Amino acid sequence: MPSLWAEVISPKIKTLLGKKMDNDIYNKQNQQLHPQDILKNQAEKWQISLTSEQFARKLDETDPLQHTRNEFYVPKIGTLPHGEFIDAADKSHTDPDKDCIYFCGHSLGLQPKRVRKSIDNWLKDWAELGVRGHVHGTNPFAKCDYPCIPALKTLLGAKDNEVGVMNQLSSNIHFMMISFYRPTKERFKILYEDRAFPSDGYAIHSQIRFHGYDPTEAAILLKPRENETYIRTEDILELLKEQGQSIALVLLSGIQFYTGQFFDIKTITHASQQQGCVAGWDLAHA
């Protein structure tokens, strides 16, 4: 059976996934630094101003993943709805044939060019095989998730039987919370971060009400300190020490939806478990 993974992912990407990327930005030492410090160090090494266009172009030129831009359709300025132009004084922003600058990948990613072929293959099988397409054809419908599992288990560090590909974010959060949010009279609260992806908050409040509790009492919202953007790990650990015995579930994003903060998953998970809390991580935007 031809793999959906093979159809959608380019050969270059598969090659990079199978070997270490040789680039200063991606080295192991840099993984311990704040992104801002990584960029500052790189600018000093190249002797280029961090805020210059030259530095941005240099980053693109040396990025081993630079070719992936060509794997996606980028909307043209001329196809966008009226009134989307930020700076009409800059004529480059109003050229209808120019690619837009897309910063909404955390909400809806750009369309991969290969996905149309994959969908067409399924439509062809549906037309030619009907119900038999469930178990026959290019990618049998009943097994359409199978090709995704090897890549996901590697990404997650999990076993085949620990990975399931199904539904969409809100449904999956509900399914997971039905299994892992088991409130008691003493331990019924859920800890999650401010400005999480909206459906996370909706699901959390819905589950709290479903179990007969009041979200104003049972939902604990993590916020950064005043005049700060990121939530400090030490503040999360301190809150767990203070209220951990009343928290049933800690549900955070791997990478924060709005700020891009990468939470210390290992440290927070360990601290949560020490307090008897179940720790869950929404990696939909990670």
UniProtKB/TrEMBL annotation:
What SUPFAM superfamilies does the record tag this protein with? PLP-dependent transferases
Molecular functions (GO terms): kynureninase activity; pyridoxal phosphate binding
Q: Does the keyword NAD apply?
A: no
According to its UniProt entry, one GO biological process term is: anthranilate metabolic process
Cellular component GO terms, alphabetically? cytoplasm
Would I find Hydrolase among this entry's keywords? Answer: yes
Q: Provide the alphabetized UniProt keywords.
A: Hydrolase, Pyridine nucleotide biosynthesis, Pyridoxal phosphate
Q: What is this protein called?
A: Kynureninase
The source organism is Adineta steineri
Q: What is the lineage of its organism?
A: Eukaryota, Metazoa, Spiralia, Gnathifera, Rotifera
